[in-house]
Amino acid sequence: MRAVQYIEVGRPPRVVDVPAPEPGPGQILLRVTAAGVCHSDLAVMGWPAEGFPYALPLTLGHEGAGRVEAVGDEVYTVAVGDDVVVYGPWGCGMCRNCSLGLENYCPRAAALGIHPPGLGRPGALAEYVLIDAERHLVPIGDLDPVQTVPLTDAGLTPYHVIKRSLPRLYAGSTAVVIGAGGLGHVAVQLLRAVSAASVVALDIREESRELALRSGAHHALPSDASAVDAVRDLTGGAGASAVFDFVGVQATVDLAGRMVGMDADLNIVGIGGGVAPVGFDTLPFGTRVGTTYWGSRSELIELIALARRGAVSVHVERYGLEDGPEVYERMKAGRIQGRAVIVPES
Ligand code: NAD
Ligand code: ZN
Ligand code: ZN
Question: How many angstroms does the Cα of residue 184 sit away from the middle of ligand 1?
Answer without folding.
Answer: 7
